[in-house]
């Protein structure tokens, strides 16, 4: 493990340890994949972490023993094998209280550890690491920036592929392949590509529908780079647009700008959402914007904070949040425009560079 990486991971573990101390808990069993990676930088399909006030452990089996050994000195390796399980280790340690991620573990696992650890109180610790993760450090911001840059380049490429006669599925596949070619390790989520009347479905799946002259094409896509997710949406037109299409597009663009102008540290997610919603409703499209205006991204595609009509999340410096208002008119068409931004004390740093002006191909 490189010294810089070790210091970063140590800082994260210390933050978790501080929260553990505040609650007076003895140990924290980390099982959620994204939280394990955040606290160890270790990719594996089979391991757990245990964090205590004075020691940290990585528990895995023979398959990952050598790789997990690279986490030293931050984590002490514990190998499970025949006759010695995770439960054996926890029972041996006799922790007074064991904090767990209730929302991640199965009912069967919870039943097993409560039966095995009769002298240990099992307590919930959900959302603690996620709260820490909501504030990104420079390495996380840079990884997200690179992921979004890959998305920008893929968008530039796909503009040359969108034309009448090409199917939504083909466009989605070409986008995904291009992001892979450009260095993405995976997708943030299943790519959305809808056209024509189907653009009124915010999360419509790509179909065999062929793109036609006069269609809007909405693409919502993202990729992973060093574990961090990008997310962007662009709506483009093919051939020509009607006056109504142009009006709707400009309204969504104005709504997105209004939300962007609102975003900075100390502002509530509710107020960001309201800024965009007021523009859309004020233009006569009330009832056509039914989802939240934004969500955080990171190791997961949906993280804190949320900007919605019911959100009370407060934006903080270092958070990354999407800005994605839309108008959807059933039976006609829809438009969504989405960027990712980093929150600062005075405003935002937009990570998405692709043109937002109406593009007619």
Structure description:
This protein is an alpha+beta fold. It has two domains: 3-133, 3-Layer(aba) Sandwich (Creatine Amidinohydrolase, Chain A, domain 1); 138-350, Alpha-Beta Complex (Creatine Amidinohydrolase), CATH 3.90.230.10. 35% of the residues lie in helices and 22% in strands. The chain has ten helices and 19 strands. Strands 4-3-2-1-5-6 form a six-stranded mixed beta sheet. A hairpin with a 4-residue loop joins β18 and β19 (348-350).
Provide a quick synopsis of the model.
The chain is of the alpha+beta class and 361 residues long. The protein is 35% helix and 22% strand.
- Helices and strands, in N-to-C order? HEHEEHEHEHEHHHEEEEEEHHEEEEEEE
Corresponding CATH superfamily of the largest domain: Creatinase/methionine aminopeptidase superfamily
Query: Spans of 5+ residues with little confidence (pLDDT < 50)?
Result: none
Q: Give the fraction of residues assigned to helices.
A: 25-40%
CATH class of the largest domain equals Alpha Beta
User: Total strand count, please?
Assistant: 19
Biggest sheet record: 6 strands, mixed
Computed CA radius of gyration, to the nearest angstrom:
23 Å
Number of helices: 10
* CATH T-level fold name of the largest domain: Creatine Amidinohydrolase
């Amino acid at each position: 493990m490189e010294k810089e990486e070790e210091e970063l991971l140590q800082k994260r573990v210390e933050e978790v340890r501080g929260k553990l101390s505040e609650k007076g808990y003895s140990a924290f069993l980390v099982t959620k994949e994204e939280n394990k990676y955040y606290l160890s930088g270790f990719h594996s399909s089979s391991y757990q972490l245990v964090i205590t006030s004075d020691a940290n452990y990585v528990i895995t089996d023979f398959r990952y023993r050598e790789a997990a050994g690279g986490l030293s000195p931050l984590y002490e390796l514990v190998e499970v094998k025949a006759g010695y399980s995770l439960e054996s280790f926890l029972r041996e340690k006799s922790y007074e209280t064991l904090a767990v991620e209730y929302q991640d573990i199965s009912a069967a696992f919870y039943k097993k550890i409560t039966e095995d650890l009769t002298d240990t109180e099992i307590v919930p610790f959900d959302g603690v690491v996620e709260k820490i993760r909501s504030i990104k450090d420079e390495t996380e911001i840079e990884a997200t920036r690179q992921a979004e840059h890959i998305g920008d380049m893929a968008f530039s490429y796909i503009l040359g592929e969108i034309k009448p006669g090409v199917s939504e599925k083909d466009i989605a596949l070409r986008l995904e392949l291009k992001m892979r070619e450009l260095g993405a390790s995976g997708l943030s989520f299943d790519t959305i590509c809808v056209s024509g009347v189907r653009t009124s479905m915010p999360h419509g799946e790509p179909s065999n529908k062929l793109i036609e002259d006069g269609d809007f094409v909405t693409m919502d896509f993202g990729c992973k780079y060093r574990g961090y997710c990008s997310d962007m949406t662009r709506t483009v037109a093919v051939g020509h647009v009607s006056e109504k299409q142009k009006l709707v597009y400009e309204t969504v663009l104005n709504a997105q700008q209004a939300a962007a102008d609102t975003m900075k540290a100390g502002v509530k997610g509710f107020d960001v959402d309201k800024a965009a919603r007021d523009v859309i409703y004020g233009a006569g499209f009330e009832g056509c914007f039914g989802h939240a205006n934004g969500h955080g991204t990171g190791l997961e595609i949906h993280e804190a904070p949320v900007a919605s009509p019911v959100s009370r999340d407060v934006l903080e410096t270092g958070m990354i949040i999407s800005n994605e208002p839309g108008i959807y008119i059933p039976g006609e068409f829809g438009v969504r425009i989405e960027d990712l931004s980093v929150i600062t004390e005075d405003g935002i740093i937009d990570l998405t560079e692709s043109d937002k002006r109406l593009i007619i191909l």
